[in-house]
Amino acid sequence: MKHYFDSNQEELLLKFLAKQEVSLSDNQLEKLFDYVQLVIQGNEKVNLISRNDIPKFLSRHIADSLMPYIVLSKKNFLKPNMIWADMGAGGGCPVFPLAIACPEIQFYASEPRHKRVLFLEKTKNSLHLENLQIVGKRFETSEISNCDVISCRALSRFEADYERALPALKKDGIFVTFKSKEIAQELKNIPNVHLIDYRLPLENLEYSLVIKGIYG
Ligand SMILES: C[S@@+](CC[C@H](N)C(=O)[O-])C[C@H]1O[C@@H](n2cnc3c(N)ncnc32)[C@H](O)[C@@H]1O
Prior knowledge:
Blueprint: H1 7-19, H2 26-42, H3 57-74, E1 83-87, H4 95-101, E2 106-110, H5 114-126, E3 132-135, E4 147-152, H6 158-165, E5 169-180, H7 181-185, E6 193-199, E7 206-212
Parallel strand pairs: 1-2, 1-4, 2-3, 4-5
Antiparallel strand pairs: 5-7, 6-7
Helix pairs in contact: 1-3, 2-4, 3-4
């Protein structure tokens, strides 16, 4: 198997996955490593991520991006041919790691900024991600609809993001977003909101995956 350029980072990700009791194939891990390389290279031309984040991209952003897969697959929520849209894809987290982890799910990545869209398209093609479609529009005008899952990371406030997602969700679809544990506490009394707390390697902060809807 091809390894990541930083063996410490690779080990941290593998330990994180093992602790979460999930495993990815060698091919999936290699694709994740290739994706990170493409983000680091792409960041030279387009502002995709903070430069400070590069050394811990695998242990922080990739591990974080995989959390919805980890939580939803343990609950047997994920089924082949489901439709999953990510709003505000930016440099591709969480949608690229998720599309790599769940090849049987059809993903849509909505992102309005042109340079980012070009990067996402090129990266999708390099990684041969047939189950991912890049949509170069704001989510509200993207015409993406009938989704089983809609996610977003670092987009806006929970209420605004949920409102943005709702028209495109199936009746029994779920909305998933990422917050710090502290911010997520403010959301715990909203009907049908579930908070799943977690930690990431090397990070002091605690995080919560916020899911609105019934997922298992
Ligand atoms: C802070 S970045 C987060 C990127 C990525 N999700 C991450 O976690 O690294 C937010 C992204 O959302 C995009 N965006 C802003 N409003 C949007 C909307 N209405 N629909 C889709 N994308 C939007 C921005 O262009 C930007 O790339």
